[in-house]
Write a structure and sequence with these properties.
Elements: E1 3-11, H1 16-31, E2 36-43, E3 50-57, H2 60-68, H3 70-80, E4 84-93
Length: 96
């Protein structure tokens, strides 16, 4: 059964383009991981500092593998996170 992550990021004022650049780097690399089914980055039209990530993994182990990847560590932890005001992750599974 798929393992879903819905993440909402709010960039610090003035840092939204830095966050976007980090996401532009990590997204295509994440989509190439064997356990990643979807990795979609959205940006709010009303609030350009707000990003929504929809991530679907084969299972929780694939998600954990993603967290250990070099590109996650470099582009999310090192490049994006310092520019975030807030970050929220929710975990879901397909119900029906």
């Amino acid at each position: 059964m798929s393992y879903i992550i819905c993440a909402t990021w709010l960039a610090r004022a003035g840092s939204e383009e830095s966050v976007l650049e980090a996401l532009k780097k990590v997204a295509p690399l994440s989509r190439q991981e064997p356990g990643v089914l979807q990795y979609i980055v959205h940006r709010s039209q009303e609030e350009p500092r707000r990003f929504f990530l929809y991530e679907e993994y084969r299972d929780e182990a694939a998600f954990q593998s993603h967290l250990e990847s070099d590109h996650f560590k470099k582009y999310v932890l090192e490049e994006a996170l310092p520019h975030l005001e807030s970050r929220r992750r929710e975990h879901f599974s397909i119900a029906l």
